[in-house]
Amino acid sequence: MLALKTFSFFTSTTSTDIRSGIVPPVMNISFDNTENAFAYKSNKELKRARFLFKTMGIQPLVDLGVRLTPFALKIGIPVHGLVRNTIGKQFVGGEDLAETAKVGSILGKYNVQVILDYGVEGKEGEENFERAADEFVRVIEYAATQPNIPFISVKVTGLARFELLNILDEAPRIRSGIHDNEAEREEWDRVYDRMYRICEVAAKKNIGVLIDAEESWIQDPVDRLTMEMMEIFNKEKAIVYNTIQLYRHDRLHFLELSHRIAREKNFVLGVKLVRGAYMEKERERANQKNYTSPIQKDKESSDKDYNAAVAFCVDNIDRIAFIVATHNEESNLLTVDLMEKKGLPLNHPHLHFSQLYGMSDHITFNLAKAGCSVSKYLPFGPIKDVVPYLMRRAQENSSVSGQTGRELALIHKEIKRRGI
After folding, report:
1. Tell me, what CATH number does 253's domain have?
2. Domain count, the chain
3. The whole model's pTM is what?
4. Which helix (H) or strand (E) holds 114?
5. Has residue 239 been placed in a domain?
6. In this predicted model, what pLDDT tens digit does every residue of 337-357 receive, in sequence order?
7. DSSP 3-state helix, strand, coil percentages of the chain (rounded to 5)?
8. Cα(214)–Cα(217) distance, rounded to whole angstroms?
9. 312 in any annotated domain
10. Among candidates 155, 152, 76, which has minimal Cα distance to 120?
11. Residue ranges of the alpha helices (H) in 57-172?
């Protein structure tokens, strides 16, 4: 098993202008074209989206909903229909694959692909982990029958006990003899087997597996497991992708380290570049336990590292397959600009763009119109199971600076253009 913590980090080779945050403009793609952005939405759907984003702009209402909705569903208060027909319709594909297929089909008409995510979180127990693995395999087999589903998303916390991952993070070399708890070694073997089974089917069906990032205190075993799967299944092309959270100040170096390992082991590195999803939780834990927070000191530092990571991947595109998974307009335009300057096609097989379903349509659909390979991250599952995901979307849109305002401004612009 690879012990990533034993390697030394090395200096990035990205260009000085990217390091300094200077991003040259791209003139041939505009994210202001709302006709392209919302072509797939009816007038009714557009108005519903406007109402939802307006609601999510009211912080006290969001805070109340985030606290009460999971509790209401748990004790049987009939809010299922309300959640399903409001925030559920905006951010998830449906409660099962049949419903989600309809959304995927609509997106496909506009050359937008789909990353399928079986959105079940927080279920513990070996039986639930086995059931989740079976469901991931079923999703892969379904994706292989569809023309516009190149990837699925997998959370290791859907296959493994959270506490086990935490134990392994603190004692990462489980197979070296340092960690000698036999029951935990056997438990980890079962996690490994589940992931191997998922990736094996994915390789046979030619479907990419995007392994989600987790909290920093359980990330090390996730990274090692992902690298092991890459070494097995990414020999000829990228099947397995790790997720790099650039709001962590060590992840740009980790990307470079991963590339070095991939070259040494002779496999294609697959990475999904994101900014991150656990900032408040990370800072709170670091403060409580009195260690240095893994989170960047400010947003500018995150943006700088993200753009440097994009540049590094473009510079090494022959051996890195990467997904620019961001709602940041500058980073998307930077990627296009760097590709064009190198004379590389925007639909290069090692480059993909992605945004969450229900957000940033102005980026997704205008990239698709320009010929880029781009997808929507599309969760699905029973409402009670996807509620944690939905609550994160509600919180994100109420707290991310300018996000709700940007979405609303674009929706208002399209409503005005349509004259409705």
Report:
1. 3.20.20.220
2. 1
3. 0.88
4. strand 113-118
5. yes
6. 999 999 999 999 999 999 999
7. 55, 10, 30
8. 8
9. yes
10. 155
11. 59-75, 80-83, 89-91, 97-108, 126-143, 162-170
